[in-house]
Amino acid sequence: MDSRPPFSLQTLPLEATLCALGEAALPPFLGSALRGVIGRALLHDRQAYDYFYRNRRVDGSGLDTANPYVLTLPPEGKTAYAAGETLAFRLLLLGGAAAHVRAMVDALRAIEHRGLGVARVPFQLIEVRHGVHERFVWSDGVFYPAAARPVPLPVLRLEDVVGCKLVFHTPLRIRRNGVPLRTVDAPTLLRSLIARTVQACERYGDGADTDEAARLREAAQAVRIETYALRWRDLTRYSGRMDAKMDIGGLVGTVALAGDLTPFVPWIHAARILHTGKNTTFGLGHFSASFR
After folding, report:
1. Mapping DSSP to helix (H, G, I), strand (E, B) and coil, where does residue 34 land?
2. Domain boundaries, position 109
3. Considering its fold, how many domains does the chain have in total?
């Protein structure tokens, strides 16, 4: 087995906890609201704002690379928060975004003044922890820069993997010719996972083994779907910049793959952390994976 890592990317996983300061009715999907309030708060630091929100570009294949952070949201369904209830979510910073962690923490603190939901209910930042080391990055008004240390995107290797179950917790959006796919086959899904990892590592890290990625895109043709339980979920968000509702619907549910999946394991595991498909900064394309 080749011991060389197929990709390299430094990440800073943050776990933020907020506390509602009043009764709040939040949208069932928080990604757009959190992204919007964080973006507005970051405007006071133009350098940080530009890195987080104006850093995407189109690569040679015509695919655009998402901005350098990923939201992982709490389970959907809870929309009502009483005063004193906590709201926790994960924020993954990619590559150079870690240099702006203090600005991001300040943006999270600003939610207390800007509020969430239609009523703009204030949520106070309680703490920010490192998602791997469990150290406080910010707590009780104190920022701890020594705790805000990036960690490598892990490379998971397993042997003799013949199956994989993927559970999509938030909508997966894969577009073909500008149109979101309402069903996916195994090669399309695996190619999306590989493309996401390659794009993120090429743009924000030290790169990826594009030759291996190309080989795996071909090998994906031999992988088949064993069980398919993905369904389309309609979802919209409001864009303040466009002053309009935007469609961000996609596929949720479970799909099981069968075949020689051993070489795909590192890429699937990486995409599990990075999410996959479109609109990952909103928290879309979040999935869990298990192998057999």
Report:
1. helix
2. 8-152
3. 2
